[in-house]
Amino acid sequence: LVGFCGVKRDLMKVLAFEDSYDIEALLISGGADITKLELHQYRDSSEHLVRIAEFEPEVLMLDHFMPPYTGLQVLQNLVQAVEKGAKRPPKIIAISSASMANQRMLQFGADLAIRKDLLATLDIWP
Predict the structure, then answer these.
(1) Residue 41, φ and ψ in degrees, nearest 5
(2) Which residues, 6+ apart, have CB-to-CB distance to 92 below 8 Å?
(3) CA atoms within 13 A on the CB side of 9
């Protein structure tokens, strides 16, 4: 398996900030092979920049409506941190159930936007 950065590894590193849905269960129910993922999910967005920097995900998923910072605020903070030298995850996915929230995150730098129930249909999963 080759990750987004061209680095050969066994598992794709995925980090999700999502407070109400179990991302692993969504992926499994949609047929994704989660045995090839190292998935970390946080149910709140506190310490989001530290969590992103420490884990260095290949895929970052952001729900819009979560405490204490919205997915859009997390994305905006990440964009500012990247401008100052932080590492940007290769794929940032807006996963709000509200299409307007997803559109806003696309405007501010997300690479993809999808409803949570369709998450497993993305062609990024190994």
Answers:
(1) -125, 130
(2) 59, 60, 61, 62, 75, 78, 109, 110, 111, 112
(3) 14
User: Taking a C-beta distance cutoff of 8 angstroms, is the pair 77, 48 a contact?
Assistant: yes
With 80 as the cut, is the pLDDT of residue 3 above it? Answer: no
Place of tokens 């405007």: 107
Residue 92 reports pLDDT greater than 70: yes
Q: Cα–Cα distance between 60 and 49 in angstroms, integer?
A: 12
95-110 pLDDT tens trace: 998 999 999 999 999 9
- Between the alpha carbon of residue 9 and those of residues 24, 58, 59, 87, 105, the distances in Å are 20, 11, 14, 19, 29
Gyration radius from the chain CA atoms? 13
CA-based nearest residue to 47, from 81, 1, 22, 10: 81
The DSSP string of 76-119 is HHHHHHHHTTPPPPSEEEE--SSHHHHHHHHHTT-SEE--GGGG
> Which tokens hold the place of 26?
């969504």
Query: Worst-scoring range by mean pLDDT, 1-5, 9-13, 84-88, 112-116?
Result: 1-5
